[in-house]
Amino acid sequence: MSTVVFWSPVNGRGTSSHLILSALMITLTHHVRVLSMHMNKNGDSIEAALPVREESMDHMTNIFAITGWDALLRLHLSGNLTRDKFRDYTVPLSRQLDLLPGARVQSSLDVNEEYAKYIPSVLKTASEVYDLVMLDAGNRDRMERDMMKDADVVVVNLDQNLRVLENYFGDTELKEQLESKKVIVTVGQYDADSHCTVNNIKRRFNYKHPVVAVPYCTEFKDAWNRRDVPSYLQQNMNLDKKNGQRGEHASSIRELAKCIMDNAGLRTILKQLERGA
Fold this sequence. Notes:
By secondary structure, the protein is of the alpha/beta class. The chain has 14 helices and eight strands. Helix 1 crosses helix 12 and helix 11 packs antiparallel against helix 12.
């Protein structure tokens, strides 16, 4: 199992959207089992991209009451969390992709403060169930940066704001923290006509590692607002750049998914399995 942590030094740079899109793309194109999870409250983060069936809200409420961080943590603290029981506390998004919903806590509580300390032991159990665990660690807070310590791959989500880029690439403490990690940088809401291109970013900051540009896409934004991102991606996943905005967006998500799989070592493992190694 590999753990991929999505993080950003600032709000609104695509951390949640890049996670759910790449998780969906990976499970649509590879035979791997993936867990998606986040450290915000129930309904936030990646959950905002997913359908809510209004006609069965009572049923959904019951499901989420017995799933997610609260239920999982109760089992963990009782010493009864095992690999065989882990998936009972998740919500299946597809045959290969599960969601661990966020915590249903009082608004006065800090979800990260309450649950972050349990991340290592939860990830340890998850590693026995899933090929890939993808965690939205949020942004800014020291505690969220600490979650990256247990990651195999870190996806850092930025944009073309030069001040944000300078602060990130100039953060020597963070650079030391990530030195032993495989790091992928995304540049969200990407404008190809801006002077701040991927090539110029890499040149300016002498950066040699992967940078994936994820362009703005109106139809994706509408799908997010409709809570219909899984259907959007399934319909557009194979489009290429000649298909305009949707094609450019789909191409970037395929590139990000491939980059995650490569850095997590899963594509190599899958190839070995295909050869019967």
